[in-house]
Automatic annotation (TrEMBL):
Superkingdom of origin organism: Bacteria
Residues in FAD-binding domain copies: 8-345
Pfam families documented for this protein: FAD_binding_3
UniProt source species: Paraburkholderia graminis
Lineage: Bacteria, Pseudomonadati, Pseudomonadota, Betaproteobacteria, Burkholderiales
Gene3D superfamilies in UniProt: FAD/NAD(P)-binding domain (3.50.50.60)
Protein name, as recorded: 2-polyprenyl-6-methoxyphenol hydroxylase-like FAD-dependent oxidoreductase
Length: 460
């Protein structure tokens, strides 16, 4: 790898920041990771990751990329912390459009562990690199700039509340997540902020951890229930370390799950399958209830800016954050890390323009998946052009056929896991299977499909 400078700084040590720092370590003599929190000694949630107490798992694409950057990472999480590696299409039950997809063996390998475990292992692996260091309890108060060259020269920091100091760098990367201050910092420097796209979804889910028994779910590693009419409620139960289940359930636009045992079980009973309810009803609780509220999916269009300072980038959730029920965030950050690596291999000239364009192409797919599916809800506000309405209708038909056709189920899960583009589901061979499967099944996406999913019978 070519050396592009003496020092690079990454603001934010969440998953995106850790991955960005890993890429920069190959191109800069020193990399400094600045984190507002103090790192926990054990695998416990930290303040800067409000979703850290909730359901997490690495999609197949994210798992593969992390393995590429940190060889042996997946096996390490399993061996040292009790995570689980599994076949996403065979070891997890998927229910969408109120029907259950057929399970089958596939090459989709995912990683299940809590967010503190996933992040903790990644952070320790990164900080073993000789040219990477982290500064904890470090607040970044602004950017240092060269007004003549119109470039960023470093950051202004305050560590442990002490006097402000400036750290110089040839490149600064903002990986501070959805609450990024980049737009405000750009305005203060005389640059226009990026245009925003926002879709209000009002998602709120309640999470609790339970003891996991080997016989639960007939040995499957988890179940994912995507919200659909009539009540649009989501439910997820995934195996985690220490023989535990993490269970999250919630709805759109104020339809919150209760935080008491009776109310939570009643809420789970309204899902199109009783499987999560039945496990929770007899499982030993390991934690209390924790709520997470997420108002809107947000995309900042940095790629459309005509002017942007040199030596500065925005990364990960600071560019785009999605409805978290789709579990895309960590994988999108991993894909952006690959894009950053490719951009840096071509040098540092015009880096921001090249990276933002690459990142926009990456974000397009998960954004369309998340927002397109959320717009199925009649009360979520947003444009519904004819093509989106057709795609949502077609995906519903695909689900019906995929209750019996594992080839269709796996094709759909490859898209969900960001291994294949959504357009792959429109290939003639797939479309024929969808058509034939609907002729065979004769099952609508209405109440009969709900009852089929509830019954969990042999026909699925």
């Amino acid at each position: 790898m070519k050396n592009l400078g003496e020092h690079a700084i990454v603001i934010g040590a969440s998953m995106g920041g850790l991955l960005a720092a890993r890429v920069l370590s190959d191109f800069y003599t020193r990399v400094t990771l600045l984190e507002r929190d103090a790192f926990p000694a054990a695998h416990t949630p930290r303040k800067g990751v409000p979703q850290g107490r909730h359901t997490h798992g690495l999609l197949a694409r994210g798992s593969a990329i992390l393995e590429e950057f940190f060889a042996g990472y997946n096996a390490e999480v399993v061996a040292q912390s009790g995570g689980l590696i599994g076949d996403v299409a065979n070891d997890v039950i998927w229910i969408g459009h109120n029907v259950r997809l057929a399970n089958a063996r596939s090459d989709l390998t995912g990683l299940l562990a809590s967010r503190p475990v996933l992040e903790g292992h990644l952070r320790r692996r990164l900080l073993r690199l000789p040219n990477v260091r982290a500064i904890e309890s470090c607040a970044v108060t602004g950017l240092a700039t060269d007004p003549v060259r119109k470039s960023v020269t470093g950051v202004r920091t305050c560590v442990d509340g002490k006097l402000e100091q400036t750290l110089d760098a040839e490149l600064v990367v903002d990986a501070t997540g959805r609450g990024s201050s980049s737009a405000a910092w750009l305005e203060a420097l005389g640059y226009p902020p990026p245009a925003n796209e926002k879709v209000e979804i009002g998602i709120c889910y309640m999470t609790r951890t339970y003891r996991r028994r080997p016989t639960d779910l007939d040995g499957k590693h988890g179940i994912v229930v995507a919200g659909s009419a009539p009540n649009w409620r989501n439910g997820v139960m995934l195996a985690q370390e220490n023989d535990s289940w993490i269970v999250s359930a919630g709805g759109f636009l104020g339809d919150d799950a209760p935080d008491d045992d009776q109310g939570f079980l009643a809420y789970l009973a309204t899902l199109p399958t009783m499987e999560i309810h039945d496990v929770v009803a007899r499982a030993e609780p390991l934690t209390g209830y924790t709520q997470y509220r997420y108002a809107s999916s947000l995309r900042r269009r940095y790629e459309k800016l005509a002017r942007f300072p040199g030596n500065y980038l925005v990364f990960g959730d600071a560019i785009c954050s999605f409805n978290p029920v789709y579990g895309q965030g960590m994988t999108v950050a991993a894909e952006e890390a690959l894009a950053l690596q490719q951009c840096l291999r071509a040098g540092s000239n015009d880096l921001a323009r090249r990276f933002f364009r690459s990142a926009a192409k990456i974000v397009d797919i998960p954004w369309d998946i998340a927002v397109g599916n959320d717009l199925r809800h009649p009360h979520v506000k947003g444009a519904r052009p004819p093509m989106l309405r057709f795609i949502n209708w077609y995906i519903g038909k695909l689900h019906v056929a995929a209750t019996r056709d594992s080839t269709l189920a796996t094709a759909f899960l490859k898209v969900v896991n960001l291994m294949m583009p959504p357009s792959s589901l429109l290939r003639p061979a797939i479309a024929r299977r969808v058509w034939w499967g609907n002729r065979r099944c004769g099952v609508s996406a209405g109440s009969r499909a709900i009852e089929t999913a509830r019954g969990n019978g042999a026909s699925l």
